[in-house]
Design a protein that fits this description.
The chain is mainly α and about 750 residues long. The protein folds into five domains: about 5-175, 3-Layer(aba) Sandwich (Rossmann fold), CATH 3.40.50.300; about 180-240, Orthogonal Bundle (Helicase, Ruva Protein, domain 3), CATH 1.10.8; about 245-360, Zinc Finger, Delta Prime, domain 3; about 465-545, 2-Layer Sandwich (GMP Synthetase, Chain A, domain 3), CATH 3.30.300; about 565-650 and about 700-725, no CATH class. α9 crosses α10 and α26 crosses α29. The model is unreliable at about 365-395, about 425-450, about 565-605, about 615-640, about 685 and about 700-705 (pLDDT under 50).
Length: about 750
Amino acid sequence: MALYRKYRPASFAEVVGQEQVTRPLSVALDSGRINHAYLFSGPRGCGKTSSARILARSLNCIEGPTSNPCGVCPSCVSLAPGGPGNLDVTELDAASHRGVDDMRELRDSAIFAPAESRYRVFIIDEAHMITREGSNALLKIVEEPPEHLIFIFATTEPEKVIGTIRSRTHHYPFRLLTPQSMRGLLERTVASEGVHVDDSVYPLVIRAGGGSPRDSLSILDQLIAGSGPEGLTYEVALPLLGVTDLSLIDAAVDALATGDRAALFQTVDDVIEAGHDPRRFVEDLLERLRDLMVLQAVPDAFDLGLVDAPTDRATVLSGQASGFTAGQLAQLAATVNDRIADMRGATSPRLLLEILCAHLLLPAAPVQGAGGVAAVAAPAAQPAPAAAPAAPASSGKVFERPSVRRAREEAEKKAAEAARAPSQPSEPQSAPKPESAPEPAAQAAPEPPKAPEPAPEPEPVQDPVETLRSRWSAIRDEVARQNKVAAIMLAEARVLGLKDDTLVLGHNTGALAERLNAESNNAVIAKVVSEEARRELQVHCVIGTDPAAAGFSPVEKKETWNPQSQAPAPRETAGADTGSAGSADAPEEPESPAPAETPADPPTTSSWGKPRALGGDASPAPAPAPAKPAQTPPTPTPPAAENKPSWQRIAERGRANAARQAAERAARPSFDDGVPLPPEPMDDHEAPPEEPAPAPAPEPQPAAATVTAATSQSEEEEEMLQAAQEPGNFDRRDATTIAVELLEQELGARRL
């Protein structure tokens, strides 16, 4: 019989290394606190199924429920290790009985009372393999079972058991055995078998078993079966377990300690010739480096059980550990650990092993730099002569990893700086007169003025408000990517100013201003504005778009190109027949005598008529316009007071052209037997209604009227310029109406 079956525990007292499970279960059995469902979880081979059988045996013992079954009653005998089993205890492998039909069959049979025992126990192994449908079929009976029914679920993946079942069980987690507990179990088993096993074999078996009692006993059973009359020796166990020979590991470690390249690569050849797996060799080498690192840090590691190695190897390992520094061992172990993954599935494992050895044999840089920080910081603290020998060490042509090269270059740089630092004060000391020492310092002082060179900082800092105004379109686009509704409501919003850390926006619609101040919209706008202004800002929207009304300075009017304003201003001031459109400052120009001669210039002739300044509603001048300049007093007249607005003149020309084209089409001969062609579609744009020609304005106007006309003209001009900058469309509705309509469509808003 296999050792793991022969030495299966028969009670909770015989279970090794699972005190976190056996102790509370024993107390619950002795106190009579029995639950209807249990869940045992943990790695494979750690004793879950064995503990489930012990629990069933303890429940049905004639003296039970008890934590120590008597072992003589029919139930204990039938459920003992190697026993025939019991009719009332059913073991089910859920890996092969996982469907809904299997669970229904189990449910139908579970309602019957036990035949000869106290409880009917169902041990369901690999419970995570049950399908969701099967678990649902089993759920009702697990939730409310009969008094005689107990379920024990065993699984390696408890998270895959559905929560409705897991929540109705008592969960006990199992774990792998520690090396000390496993060694005690193996020694007791070997003593029971009466076989001699060398002490150096136990670490090999424990490492191969991976902490699982079942796997470790299986490996030990195999080794004992293949051993001779002298017992199980290290030489017999080594090839069977595939472990690298200790002599090869020792040779590799000695070559690394001395930097002997030839010896290390010869060791690699011996590993390949001996038929060892290169990956396994690397794993064993990493394990040895770990043991040496622990021994170096803790000299009595063998006594404390920190090193999993034979005790007779203590002297050898201690000597190997003394041949390295702490930084060397750490660096070597890290390099091996980083490259061990490359050995899996490699097409040329020997080549990868040799590359690994080449990295381990890198010259002083990786080893001395194993101290990394220490190697870099040391030259800075030492004088220049101590750091100088580092140069010849790097003179040879050797391969360096990028990290090693950067560390070496940084160390050399700091060493050079440290060497220059003490040399500067030594020069003044060599001067014969101590009084003259300050003079070199004064002469060297002109060098610091180079520092103020990066002083182009005092550049004029742009006003954040102006920055936001100039970037308003980009801000709206960014807001649109995060909140389309907020971007729609920002269409008519304007930046008014900045109060402390709050950006004040203006909106002509009160309802939209309130919606912009809502948390859902305001947070997005504030975030985008803060990112654009590179400072934390809050946003508040008020009603009205006039900065002066909100307590801010008015927005400066920027000059923009306008073809209507390119005519020279003196022509307008000299006489209305010149037809040039001037700015609001044009009436002041006639005060100088120079523009008085400009009316003598011949008026410009054009088929488009005379240009007209924006704004104003006065009628055009009468026919005898050329004689007008002689009669007009030199006092300035309000601009745009004698001509029609430009849009009106353009509309009139459009209507005239349309009438002329219609007359021409009517005069053309038809082509379809005298049937005239249908009229061509007219432009959808309606021309503004004609304004009746007002009476000629009185010659003298008060100053107030002049200011009012100039103001209305400037306002109209500003509105026209703003309208020209907006994207054009065929929709004649204002932006507020469009925004309200979009809000009604997107949000179901209601007009107030």
